[in-house]
């Protein structure tokens, strides 16, 4: 009997050891698998951003503005083009305004004196050039049409001082194709309509002229201005790449920008809600045209008789569906050019001639 009991106890001890091994072995495998998955996800997300920054930071420079051989201000610039030892830098006009000498500090710490190729005060863009004894890689350009609200964006620049060169901030695209009328000479008359990207990417003094890029490392905008106030948070603006490219091409070719100006702002009909169309007495099926909401007093559109709530549906015989089409046409027109505008007023079609400003 005792022998039987000893055998039974031995079997139970072996079985208990086996169960204990199985119980402790299984959870350890599950924990390890779960930990690896989480760690891989976090690492992948971080790498996307850091790799983009690594690809782009050498394409951004610090701009130094000297007056009487004294450093007056610091801003940012982007490497826009590089051709056979000549590098072209784009920045904001207000960054180099009234400068007597302009220097660019590159990522390799080279401090190079720049030559001003051309600028446009209304659109706040300046083009600089210099010859370098080192190679420089310019930005690859993105596209306005491919941008989406909510898309991630990264700003790179030199806020506050050159000590912070290459600073990076991160956010999203908050709005597209926003129209801002500009009175650059402060005479009470708007001189230009700027098309801007809105972003919540943090900006400080000195970020002006720096790069706004997407996660592919493509240049999508030139950081230009921000709203400041106790009731404002995270409202900053950049000149979108398509707009910037057109301006820079003209500055490279002519040193100046010649572009027709209408003196209006408004909203694409396609973006109006049905209640807004009803209030304006519009056909709810109407989805093309540009609704005028503001007409600059004594501006070209005002002098031609255009009014608030008129809807532009054609220019020079070509149908207009949105402001992007109007903008593209104005790019190819100059001040003093005359255009024929077809518009709807009280649902009736009318035409007028406008001499562009």
Verbal overview:
With 357 residues, the protein is of the alpha+beta class. It contains 6 helices and 18 strands. A hairpin with a 2-residue loop joins strand 17 and strand 18 (348-355). The relative contact order is 0.10.
Numbering strands along the chain, what is their spatial order in the largest sheet?
1-2-3-6-5-4
Number of strands: 18
Coarse morphology: globular
Largest sheet: 6 strands, antiparallel, barrel
Structural class: alpha+beta
Range of helix content: 25-40%
Considering the chains and any ligands shown, give keywords for the structure.
single chain, 357 residues, alpha+beta, six-stranded antiparallel β-barrel, 6 helices, 26% helix, globular
Question: Mind sketching the topology for me?
Answer:
Blueprint lengths: L1 H55 L3 E8 L2 E14 L2 E6 L1 H4 L4 E5 L5 E10 L4 E7 L20 E6 L9 E16 L9 E8 L11 E3 L5 E8 L9 E5 H14 L9 E5 L5 H6 L10 E6 L4 H4 L7 E5 L2 E2 L3 H9 L6 E8 L2 E8 L2
Antiparallel strand pairs: 1-2, 1-4, 2-3, 3-6, 4-5, 5-6, 7-8, 7-10, 8-9, 9-12, 10-11, 11-12, 13-14, 14-15, 15-16, 15-17, 17-18
Question: What would a concise description of this structure say?
Answer:
The chain contains 6 helices and 18 strands.
